[in-house]
Amino acid sequence: MNEKYRRILVPYDGSRFSRMALDEAIEIAKKFDSDLYLLTVMDALTVAPPAFYAIPGAIFDIKKFEKYYRAATSKTDLVLRDEVLRCKEQGTHADYEIMTGVPGDTILEFAKKKKIDLIIMGSQGLSGIRKIKALGSISRKVSELAVCPVLIVR
Predict the structure, then answer these.
(1) How many CB atoms lie within 10 A of CB 106?
(2) Each residue of 113-134: pLDDT tens digit?
(3) For residues 92, 124, 133 and 144, what is the CA-based torsion angle, rounded to 10 degrees?
(4) Going edge to edge, which strands form the sheet with 93-100?
(5) Model-level pTM?
(6) Which helix (H) or strand (E) holds 119?
(7) What one-character DSSP code corresponds to residue 48?
(8) Is 147 strand, coil or helix?
(9) Domains in the chain, please, with CATH?
(10) Distances 99 to 10, 68, 69, 80 between C-alpha atoms, Å
(11) Are 126 and 14 in contact, with CB atoms under 8 Å apart?
(12) How many CA atoms lie within 13 A of 111 on its CB side?
């Protein structure tokens, strides 16, 4: 077994770029017999629709927020299960995790905790500003601060 890229992290948000990053990760994982970790980070501020926060001075309804959060987590869980199944069908071991936090920070913490050898991520995610064609803010932060190599897929 090759030890170079034993553990590969793929931050996954369902965007076209994260799907392309997963495709690339599957190919690399096959070559190096790597384990894939798919990670989705749910930013609490983006779980509920913008209208939820739009009324200045309105009382924050925690029960309504929890409802949005559970629905988003459930949908994300189904998507990640399907992607893990796709990885396994292609001969690659994969697992997934859903975490809540600031995406860039959470990705970096997860990579450090799991001793990730390579991060493969899309150049832009769902939350990126579409007008800017440079790297998304999350991929830029991860590429600058990660302690392991980062492959950014366009």
Answers:
(1) 19
(2) 999 999 999 997 765 444 344 4
(3) -90
(4) 93-100, 35-42, 7-11, 118-122, 150-153
(5) 0.87
(6) strand 118-122
(7) S
(8) coil
(9) 7-153 (3.40.50.620)
(10) 13, 15, 12, 13
(11) yes
(12) 24
